[in-house]
């Protein structure tokens, strides 16, 4: 039986519950992270904790733990569940309030940490590549709900995923309201053209921690990465396309909106980065 951290206590999963008056439940008022542990070490733990606190800061949510305490609680949750290879989900909500949306009515944030076993998200698709679909729903505008806040309000991403599902895709490609590539429903997007790697700036998407790791790996392997505005044309005509995320890791995309990308198989640079990412994940991180 897995143990869930709730406000400093470890509760068996079957009894782990939050109030129906919790504003995380009522309004998606809260923030979260998705983190992986590989071989007993937590990948980029400090970066994830910092992003959680940055998301909280942006919505004026005061997390009742220090960053160090949060990192410890995350490692503790893994330890208590005897997990070495796992996915961890810290969640901080505005807490218990009334049925009105006013956060001033919420006295104390709720802190939850869930840790589970979860293998690579796309299974056999890492071999053949994902089919992606550009969706009609636009990414939340940065001046409405900044995509850099990893908030509990994921309905925009879910609408994109629904549309990709309906249209037979494995992942959505979301554009911003100007038609620029934003990101996938839960990952960042890269395109390779003439041996150079391109990816959008992070104003209209989440600044991914896997994205950052891929920048470092590319640089180490002598591959140039350029942050720039991209459109669907750039993806359709790319030599290779891949997505990055904690859950997805590095995953090739071989078809977009019916267009075969490059050779139609995961390309050499994507494969090189997939291997390099695995090696990095297995050989770094904070011990549990
Ligand atoms: N974009 C979105 C919308 C996401 O939910 C995620 C997953 N956290 C990412 C990008 C990738 O970020 P990371 O590499 O930090 O997991």
Automatic annotation (TrEMBL):
Its cofactor is pyridoxal 5'-phosphate. It comes from the Archaea. Belongs to the class-IV pyridoxal-phosphate-dependent aminotransferase family. The keyword Oxidoreductase does not apply. Coiled coil: none annotated. Pathway: Amino-acid biosynthesis; L-leucine biosynthesis; L-leucine from 3-methyl-2-oxobutanoate: step 4/4; Amino-acid biosynthesis; L-isoleucine biosynthesis; L-isoleucine from 2-oxobutanoate: step 4/4; Amino-acid biosynthesis; L-valine biosynthesis; L-valine from pyruvate: step 4/4. PROSITE patterns: AA_TRANSFER_CLASS_4 (PS00770). The gene is ilvE. It is an enzyme of class 2 (transferase). InterPro entries: Aminotrans_IV, Aminotrans_IV_CS, Aminotransferase-like, B_amino_transI, BCAT-like_C, BCAT-like_N, Class-IV_PLP-Dep_Aminotrnsfr. GO terms for biological process: isoleucine biosynthetic process; L-leucine biosynthetic process; L-valine biosynthetic process. The keyword S-adenosyl-L-methionine does not apply. Its EC number is 2.6.1.42. It comes from Methanothrix soehngenii (strain ATCC 5969 / DSM 3671 / JCM 10134 / NBRC 103675 / OCM 69 / GP-6) (Methanosaeta concilii). This is Branched-chain-amino-acid aminotransferase. GO terms for molecular function: L-isoleucine-2-oxoglutarate transaminase activity; L-leucine-2-oxoglutarate transaminase activity; L-valine-2-oxoglutarate transaminase activity. It catalyses: L-isoleucine + 2-oxoglutarate = (S)-3-methyl-2-oxopentanoate + L-glutamate; L-leucine + 2-oxoglutarate = 4-methyl-2-oxopentanoate + L-glutamate; L-valine + 2-oxoglutarate = 3-methyl-2-oxobutanoate + L-glutamate. Acts on leucine, isoleucine and valine. Keywords: Amino-acid biosynthesis, Aminotransferase, Branched-chain amino acid biosynthesis, Pyridoxal phosphate, Transferase.
